[in-house]
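debug: dumping io for the single-chain case to check the tokenizer round-trip. Nothing else runs in this session.
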Amino acid sequence: MLRAVMVVGLMLMLLVAAVFGPRLLKTVEPDAATGAKSECDLDSGPCSWADLDGKWHVALKRLTDQDAEYELIVTAAEAPDRLLAVLQGESMYMGEYPVPLRRQGDGRYVARFSAPLCTTGADMRWRLNLQQGQSSIDTAPFHMEFQAHTL
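debug: decoded output
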């Protein structure tokens, strides 16, 4: 009887180890576990990355404190015909705001815009997504974000 209980217990232990063991032994980075991208804070400085088409560089410069007015500069190795930045509320969903970028030459695009602010507060966190026409450019290994606020 004792031998039968030990055999059944051993088999259960092996089954549990086979099911849960790989999950416990695997080292997973926090972002890889959820599948989410990390973020690049445009308030801290420009965001850069490389893809198959070349290098990308995105910089955001605050122009005025009163109206949360910004200048967005995007440099792309292979310059698309139409480039669009889309603002999407991160701290609160307030819709999506397209910001058309003007081509300056040499793969450089520039846009000036005022970031919308919520009427209940003076701070708003925005995610910036790039699009080529209607197609999303999602080759960046991170989400680009910035904090819009009035002083």
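debug: round-trip ok. The first helix runs from residue 2 to 25.
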